[in-house]
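hey so u asked for the seq, here:
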Amino acid sequence: MPTDATTEYQRPPWPAAVAALLAFAALALSSGAAVPLLGLGLGLLASYVFTPRFENVALTKWTLRIIVIGFAIFGYLLNATKDDNAFFDMRYPYSFSLGAASELTLQFWRREPTGGPRAPLTVLLSALVFVLGCTTTDDRHYLWVLAPAFFLFFTLALPGFRQRAWVPLGLTLLPALLALGLGGATHAGFYVYRGALNSLGAQNFSRRHVSVSMGMSGQPLLGSSFTLRDSLTRVLRIQNLGADPYLAGMTFDTYSGRTWGPALEQRTFLTYHAPAIKPGDVRDGMARVVRLDDDVRLLFAPLHSVSIRPEGGYPVEWATHTDGPLRTPVTSTDPLTYDLGPGRGDAPQGLLDAPPTAEEEARDLAVPREIDPRVLAMARAIGSGLTAPEDKIKAVTLFLERNNCYSLTVNPGAGDPISNFILQRKAAHCEYFASAAVVLLRALGVPTRYVSGYFAHESDGKGRTLVRQRDAHAWAESWVRGVGWVTVDATPGDGRPDAQSGPIPLWWRAWEGMQDALGAIRRWVVAASWAERGTVFGLLVLGLLIPQVYRYWQRRRLASQGFQYSRPDAALSALAARFESLLARRGLPCPEGRTWREHLRALEEENASWTAWEPFVSDYGRARFGASPGPQDIARLDAELRALEQSVKETA
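ran it, structure tokens below
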């Protein structure tokens, strides 16, 4: 590649390289992807040491892109874990950032003229990587140093991408300094008043439930809406579920201030010991559950499940003294599989249906003090003359189904929302029906608790049941002596998830299929040995290189055959030499084995200005391979070539 003063090809200005390296540093500090970004940074610096560049050929470009971007992203995802304290899974934007950083590195290795199409793309990618690297809650303030430095070198790099553009340094830096000052003042304002802003945000979230997963609440709050019916996110896939569609997640026995408790963080968890099972070892009658959502820590199970066996001995915790729940100590980036042993119907014996202690039974009979006395009187009227708990449960369920309608939204009104729901016969969602059933049955002397979980109903084929976030549901469970805990669902049939759920769009199923495929690839990469990974990666690279090697071999083979073009006359040879020299002065000589037309078309993909060179190439082709050119033809070609030489001279 020519590098002397006569060529119009230049390496990107060195401030652009410094700005890119600062962007890589910010991304490495925020994402933890230090190793891939170190490799990309070294590759960028190497472009200033070594002179070879890759040509603007589609196959070459995309082969290198796949290799470099794939190396960076898979190297990051191999060890990346989700931050449990984050509201959003940052692994995906960080993966996108690494793809942008990889493309930025490749731009430094492209053969482009100064001010060519690489310039805006390089500037855009550098800014994009730095902005994404600033997406962090880290309070070590390293951005206070990196941001001004990046902005300074980013600004200094801009004039270097232009051809014959000289702008006074003061005019270049003045807008940059003004923007930097405005940005610094804004950041300082947010930083100084961050306490007040955090307090304002805390006020908005303090009255809302503590989320332990999408759709599950660590402390349910009776609010005005139930927003999960539109969420198609998959949570569980169950093989051999059985007849009970109610999958309990958490139970609650105390009610105060519109919330059910105890909250998840107030419960004491002990390690649940269960023998590990081998992959694929599913006994007859056991249900196999695959937890698909990596935000979920709870383990969901039917009421009468007698055992839970996590695959691979994964640890499980159990809050035995507060009606459960079962959970994993940490979230998992991979689907967790566990087996559930079905219970017998003759006696309570399982994880979630153990007989209540005297203290637990007292809590399950306590009517909250917020409840309006008229509700207690209504309960006595509902259960008048009934003595059997089963009859009371049936009467309360029938009363709520007949007097209240289902609605995803409700105005709780002033005072206690459960009392208002019952007395004013409001239309509301399942959390209100479950709460009302608990209160009314307790008033009738039936120990009852509030339950949140999922209602499983969607078939996934071949005996599998799929559970989505939209299947989140709330119901009650009552203790009946001699029978055990029984499920009480007072929500009308048209309000249960199986009636509320619509068909799944085809595009969403396609998206889920892609998610499954990518998840399977990632799990294989994590589980495979380095030898297996290297073999597969090498095969992919080989598959990309074979077509290019074959194309090169075909050209060499054709060139070695007996057919040869006749030699042009002296006038055409001189014109050809001048044209080749002109391409060389532009820093873009025509590679061996490529025609002028192919070369121009490759250049036109990046810069439309090369279309001005097409007339000479077309006229030369007609003169060279058509009838013998006359003096007028040579004169026309000479005039066209002189015009091109003049335009190059003017832009030099």
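The mean pLDDT is 77. The longest helix spans residues 530-560.
lmk if thats what u needed
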